[in-house]
Design a protein that fits this description.
Porin; 1 helix; 8-stranded antiparallel β-barrel; about 65% strand; mainly beta; single chain
Length: about 220
């Protein structure tokens, strides 16, 4: 029995060592076209416009089966939305540290590899600004990340829940020179609207959504 356990542990150690030896690392950066979707407290659908942002970071590709990889990463990503009505414009900029955990399929296609991937992401807000523009003047407000807002909190601030999570979907192509191009789509699944003290029946729902384009390089 002991010999079998030792043999199993040795086999698992060997598999882990081989997988680590075949693990590659890469960097990726690109643009985001982001929006905030959902509904207001009256139940009406939010009608915001896309905002241009960016993302940058690194990832690892760990082989798990032929042509399949587990791809964890770490990104800095900006999100948000804007809304323009008459002479009044609101622009929300949010900044996140994001942890994608994707499953990747990379079959050989031509001289390079096709890229197909999906998986969850978890992100946490680290900063943001709200810009209000009307009649040629502009006012800036801070964004603070908080799950519950009380009467003692600053009123001239946009409050958003810090934790965000959702799903990634992407496809692209990796060339033999280790440069890749990728189209990404992202759907936020958590409501970012915090709880406000004294408001028990608020129905506001706000979620990050977006798509983008990125360029990567594997070392």
């Amino acid at each position: 029995m002991k010999k079998r356990i030792i043999a199993l542990l040795a086999a698992l150690t060997l598999v882990a060592a081989i997988s680590f030896a075949q693990t590659t690392f890469g960097i990726r950066a690109g643009v985001n076209f982001q929006n905030i979707n959902g509904k207001d407290e009256g139940g009406d659908k939010l009608e915001n416009d896309l905002i241009l942002g960016y993302h940058a970071g690194f990832n690892a590709e760990i082989p798990v089966a032929p042509d399949f990889y587990f791809q964890p990463g770490l990104l800095f990503s900006t999100k948000g939305a804007k809304d323009a009505e008459d002479n009044f414009e609101t622009k929300i900029n949010l900044a996140y540290v994001e942890l994608p955990l994707n499953l990747l399929y990379k079959p050989l296609l031509g001289n390079g590899h096709l890229i197909l991937g999906f998986g969850p992401y978890v992100a946490y807000g680290i900063g943001g600004k709200v810009k209000l523009a009307a009649d040629g003047s502009e006012t800036d407000y801070d964004v603070k990340f908080k799950n519950k807002v009380t009467s003692s909190d600053d009123e001239d601030v946009l409050y958003v829940k810090g934790l965000d999570a959702g799903a990634n979907l992407f496809f692209g192509y990796e060339f033999p020179i280790k440069v890749s191009f990728q189209l990404n789509a992202q759907l936020g699944l958590l409501n970012l609207e915090p709880e406000y003290e004294g408001e028990t029946d608020a129905e506001t729902i706000v979620k990050n959504t977006g798509f983008g384009f990125s360029v990567g390089y594997r070392f």
